[in-house]
Amino acid sequence: MNPTIELLKSHRSVRKFLDQKIPRETLLELIRAGQSAATSSHVQAYSVIHVTNPANREQIAELAGGQPYIASCSDFLVFCADMKRPTEASARTGAEVTRGMTEQFLVASVDTALMAQNVVVAAESEGLGICYIGGIRNNPQPISEMLQLPDHVFPVFGLCLGYPDPDKLPEVKPRLPVEAVLKEDTYTEDAQHVATFDSNMKLYYRGRSSTNKDTDWSHNLTPLFSTKVRPHMRDFLLKRGFDMK
């Protein structure tokens, strides 16, 4: 394996950081690396809010479900899907712009995720640790107000960045076997692969160094699909101008 593939396969979410700041130029280079990600039709439908105000970070930590590492990491970023910039740029050419299309929502969301993952890989290549914060979507309206996000912009997720505490690094979490996700020509059933993976995940959860528990992958998914998770998001997105037309 080459070093890039080894780096990708060693990914883990880091929640314990050293009290050490990331140099400003390093942070800027990470963002530049993110901008080099693939982007649909070169739209670049994203903006990144670097949250530096300590009080705001503390508040976001609570709004995101009580995640203190949002406040304790070196740098916290909020990645936003941004259809304001490209549609306004198009309008300035004299074009009659259509807003609120479902495809625009998808383009902005995908562009944002691709850009963020480039930032993550770049950060990990520099020895930094990261943790995505999907809990941003627990309370997207007050967070949007705090960050002064305009219409046609919404927060997709946050990202903690910092130097990981080497004494508190989590183990690398197993992934589904490649045979479960790589299908040849047509979609095929993968229940047997999932059953094998459940057995492996049960061993992982029982044996990991912190927050060990007696469960598996399938049971861990239950809260996500047995309840209506974040039902407020549809109305929130409509108010942001993402009409899903």
From TrEMBL:
UniProt GO molecular function: oxidoreductase activity
Keywords linked to the UniProt accession: Flavoprotein, FMN, NADP, Oxidoreductase
Taxonomy, superkingdom: Bacteria
Cross-referenced Gene3D superfamilies: NADH Oxidase
UniProt entry tagged with the keyword Lipid biosynthesis: no
InterPro entries associated with the record: Flavin_OxRdtase_Frp, Nitroreductase, Nitroreductase-like
Nitroreductase domain mapped to chain residues: 9-163
Pfam families: Nitroreductase (PF00881)
Family from the record: Belongs to the flavin oxidoreductase frp family.
Entries under PANTHER family matching the protein: OXYGEN-INSENSITIVE NADPH NITROREDUCTASE
Name used for this protein in its record: NADPH-dependent oxidoreductase
Species this chain originates from: Halomonas halmophila
